[in-house]
UniProtKB/TrEMBL annotation, chains A, B:
Identification of the protein by name: tRNA-specific adenosine deaminase
Coiled coil, from the record: none
Quaternary structure and partners: Homodimer.
Entry note: cofactor: Binds 1 zinc ion per subunit.
Enzyme class, first EC level, given as a word: hydrolase
Keywords annotated in UniProt: Hydrolase, Metal-binding, tRNA processing, Zinc
A Pfam family that the UniProt record links to this protein: dCMP_cyt_deam_1
Active site: E48 (proton donor)
InterPro entries: APOBEC/CMP_deaminase_Zn-bd (IPR016192), CMP_dCMP_dom (IPR002125), Cytidine_deaminase-like (IPR016193), tRNA_aden_deaminase (IPR028883)
């Protein structure tokens, strides 16, 4: 989660909403990514999607059943769907997202019968630091 | 929808689940894409995500509020999330997907309070041809 939080801080420095994600296989970091929809002109460029895409490319396959995903914020519906499609084994996330999250909020995607793969889910890891990063980012934007 | 169905047929010819998508702005086709997770080693490479990413890149921005998306199959949660993030104005889709769809099935994402943009939705366009393509693809795979 340390590396995911560092990636989130990098995103904030570039004016992107500070969310970071890391894909890990055993002890090996396969991919690290930060939220970048503006820089990439890509509305799908959330940290989770970018990390999953980079990990799949690095491993040369479209399923990551031996990989875990660490992300600083509760995934949205798009990212929860991507996590299921990628067959991620374990999901570790930081802050809750009551407004846009899709794991414990809104569609609660992994509990839906149309979800074909449910990772093990561990929430609240590094949540305080992640939430502080997000609060700081949005308060600076509102003030400017 | 004709071009989306053609793209779906191309996907089937490459051994990918036959789904195609087109992003349109007014009378102009901005992007056409076919489902390609295997070929691209990318679990997020559904037709909708690829078409949205290509259209955003072509237009140089991460919001497509003046664009419509045509897709041959009801979008899944990942793609419905991507459609909302991209601010797609109108969604036209073909066949229903009771097993994996997220518009009229499962999470019904656009009806969730955590969905921040709801496109106008028109279902069932070219549904017969789209469903026949999918049935043909899966029956060939089961037989082989």
């Amino acid at each position: 989660m340390r590396q995911a939080l560092d990636a989130a801080r990098d995103a904030a420095a570039r004016g992107e909403v500070p969310v970071g994600a890391v894909v890990v296989r055993g002890d090996e970091v396969v991919a690290v990514a930060a939220n970048a929809p503006r820089a990439l002109c890509d509305p799908t460029a959330h940290a989770e999607v970018l990390a999953i895409r980079a990990a799949a490319r690095a491993l040369g396959r479209d399923r990551l059943e031996d990989c875990d995903l660490w992300v600083t914020l509760e995934p949205c519906a798009m990212c929860a769907g991507a996590i299921a499609h990628a067959r991620i084994a374990r999901l570790y996330y930081g802050a809750d997202d009551a407004k846009g999250g899709a794991v414990e909020h809104g569609p609660r995607f992994f509990a839906q019968p149309t979800c074909h793969h449910r990772p093990e889910v561990y929430a609240g890891i590094g949540a305080g630091e992640s939430a502080a990063l997000l609060r700081g980012f949005f308060s600076t934007r509102r003030a400017s």
